[in-house]
Amino acid sequence: MPFFKELSAPVSSDRIIFHVDLDYFFAQCEEIRNPDIKGKPVIICVYSGRSENSGAVSTTNYEAREYGVKSGIPIRDAQTYLKDVESIFLPVDREYYEAISIRIMSTLKDFAIHFENTSIDEAYLDVGKIVNYNYQTSERYALHIKNKIKIIYNLTCSIGIGPNKIISKIASNYKKPNAITLIPPKKVIDFLNPLSITKLPGIGTKYKNKLKKIEVNQIQDLREVKIDTLQHMFGVKLGLYFYLASRGIHNEKVIDNKKFEQISRIITLKENTRDEKEIVNKINGLSLELYTRIQKEKIRYKSIGVIVFMDDLTIHTRSKTLDTYSDDFNNIFINSKELIKNLLNETSLKIRRLGIKIFNLEDLHGQKTLLDFINK
């Protein structure tokens, strides 16, 4: 009986879900680090190391996409497309992007009853109770969140608003970049109808080609296919998912992420150095950021680690585990300083980048109480 109820159930109106998608995230992080490159095509690359230009494009900003440069194409092809254009090619700096992402996700978490971070640049927020299940209020709330992210991090994002995760995810990509797209329950079918089936999460090239053989190209075409046919083609679970998703039905909840495995912060120094005063000053700043974070999240740590990138591009790590859990600033600062001092005693190289992490974490609270919309 529950199965048939789910098939005939209307799109739920008792949830309001945001999908927040950080616009062209890697490239935008680089624009934050170096504002002079903004407005020029920026291409973030995964270099293979086999030759100077071998590898693939990871992501780009929208200026580069106007020239046909997109994720996954060879770097050489991107260079050909942009051969007469002033453009910026940069290697992926994952640690830097993750450091920014961690801070943004921590901010976003405060705006939700339930929060699910699904990737470095995407998250779902269940905000129904906060906006009293009112879609007009939810749109203002989304704008409030966008403004906060822009003010704090100088970064834009797109937010999709819908009655479930599927609709909100499709909506967040509908008018990117820097957009809010609101799809209330009554508008779901009209919104889905003209879209390509590839807009449904989970339908890639393989399934698209399979559906194309039965003349299914748009979501409205998919909705005309009987469930028995879909389950015969794709199996019971996937066939049911396609059947329900084409109707805008999706009951999966926003699942609160598990506690952090580690919290880290990393910076690039303006100049390579071994100067003790400068290094200690940077350690102090990083330690303070980590301390502020654990106070906010009500977390204690038992282990401290450092990661150091030297001027010859080698990477060195050291760590220490305490006898008991701590939430003290001095434990982070003093132990990090000692670990890096010991590391420098083992080499004559200069430090290029410096990071600190805390791990073996312990959560001190249950569910977090959120601030009221008005007070944010």
How does this model look, in words?
It is built from 14 helices and twelve strands. The strands form three sheets. A five-stranded mixed sheet has the order 5-6-1-7-8. Strands 9-12-10-11 form a four-stranded antiparallel sheet. Strands 3-2-4 form a three-stranded mixed sheet, sandwiched between helices. It folds into four domains: 14-25 and 96-185, Reverse transcriptase/Diguanylate cyclase domain (Alpha-Beta Plaits, 2-Layer Sandwich), CATH 3.30.70.270; 27-93, MutS, DNA mismatch repair protein, domain I; 193-245, DNA polymerase, domain 1; 262-363, Dna Ligase, domain 1, CATH 3.30.1490. The protein starts with a helix and ends in a 13-residue tail after the last strand. It is an alpha+beta fold. The protein has helices at residues 2-8, 25-33, 62-65, 75-81, 94-109, 135-153, 165-172, 188-192, 205-212, 219-222, 227-234, 236-245, 276-297, 329-344; strands spanning 17-22, 42-47, 55-60, 88-91, 114-119, 122-126, 157-162, 180-182, 262-273, 299-310, 315-326, 351-363. The protein is 38% helix and 24% strand.
Q: Looking at CATH, which topology of the largest domain would you report?
A: Alpha-Beta Plaits
The DSSP helix count reads 14
CATH superfamily of the largest domain: Reverse transcriptase/Diguanylate cyclase domain
Q: What is the C-level CATH assignment of the largest domain?
A: Alpha Beta
The coarse overall form would be: globular
Cα-atom radius of gyration: 24 Å
* Number of discrete domains: 4
- Could you report the average pLDDT, rounded to the nearest whole number? 88
Q: Outline the biggest β-sheet.
A: 5 strands, mixed
- pLDDT under 50 segments (min length 5)? 1-9, 366-376
Total beta strand runs: 12
Helix/strand-derived category reads: alpha+beta
